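#dry-run=false #mode=assembly
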Amino acid sequence: MTMRYLPDAGRLYGPDFARDPQAVYAALRHRHGAVAPVEIAPGIEAHLVIGYQAAVDVLTNAGGVWSKNGTDWQARLPGTPEAAAMVGMLGYRTNALYSDGVEHARYRKVITDCFSMIQPHKLRQTVIEVCDALIARFAAKGEADLAADFARAIPLRIFNRLLGRPDSDSDALIKALSDMMEADGEVGARGHDAFYRYIGELIQAKTASPGDDLTSWFLHHPAGLSTEEVLHHLVLVIAASYEPTASLISNALSRMVSDDRYYSSLANGALSTYDALLEALRAEPAMANYGPYFVRQPVHFHGTWIQPAELVLVSYAAANTEPTAVPEELRSDGGAYLGFGAGPHRCPASDPAMLIAMTAIERLTSHLCDLELTVPREELLWRPGPFHRSLAHLPVRFTPIRPDQPGESPWAVQPPSSSTPSEPTSPVRSAGYVTSAPWSS
Ligand code: HEM
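#status=ok
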């Protein structure tokens, strides 16, 4: 089914959108109200849900007409490279994100049960070790790109451990995923192969010898997922944790280092790290427009007819910033608004994600307490693309600290690196005491 859009459909791609998406949302809101026609790539159309109440209606499946299954939409895509790129992000997979009802509940339970087995204090210790090792790489330089050198380097190092692999494997995972996501053609295909090889080897290793880790918990959950279902869920967990967690950290940090109310809190506390995270989730949610939904039958929805096989994207970013009469207490979710979604597909890992982001930022600011942006925040570059709100760079300067400096420093920890693999069961030396990797006790 072809959508017949107005010529003034908004464009969720290109430099103008990356520079100022809120201007695009405001213009769409003015012209179309709660649901607006957009192009997510040249020739690929969608309905963008930009009204807060409309977004909640989709996410909570009001009227029972909403589905996550987009196979009909996918089948009708043109055979263009742009369409192929969108299938990479939105293409159907046998996992929680793309399923409904009973099937979704089964997958969802596996995810929530397995994540509930991660002990917060052990996760926190892992974050500290990973972050200290990263900070030690640039602390003496007096400058860093906190997006590339810090935020984007954190989630996969943590998840590589949570999934049950030694630290020596994390660089391979990071390279595979960044090749897969950033590049086209040959490099992208190589990255794709390497990523699936990593997952395949992971499943093989944990089937043969289960451990105290997410992979083994997925494999042995009473729901009895098949090997293929486990594979798709490991892919989902890695992809769902990488980009949004990295962006949450850098989006919040960019506020803290450019706004005096946060800046002073690095030393004496006006607004906290937690406030910065909530503000980032509300005003600049990392999963800006990544809420794909479909209708089961034609629906007249907040003034727009929507047909089956048409893509509907919930814009968490536009809904959260809608100047609306919906009172604050009805849309708060603790201050994050829809930053973690809502309804049956609401992020099942928001607690560990917040713990990771909070610990990472506090670790950074406790070592480097005079971080300062090298350019005004308005001049920061954002990565292009319709789905995420993600900084390309976050350049900062600070007073360098040296390895021989007294006081607590990132060098107090043995950095996990490919040359010093720490097997899951081996002790990891940590600031002042010996502890074990999270799953070993
Ligand atoms: C620890 C890292 C994370 C993991 C493992 C994770 C995992 C997941 C998974 C498995 C889902 C699908 C749930 C379902 O369909 O039932 C999901 C959904 C979602 N996550 Fe997360 N997530 C993480 C971090 C984040 C962060 C940092 C954000 C926001 C900044 C975020 C925002 C969302 C949103 C908005 C959805 C709903 C998508 C939809 O409506 O289709 N997640 N997440």
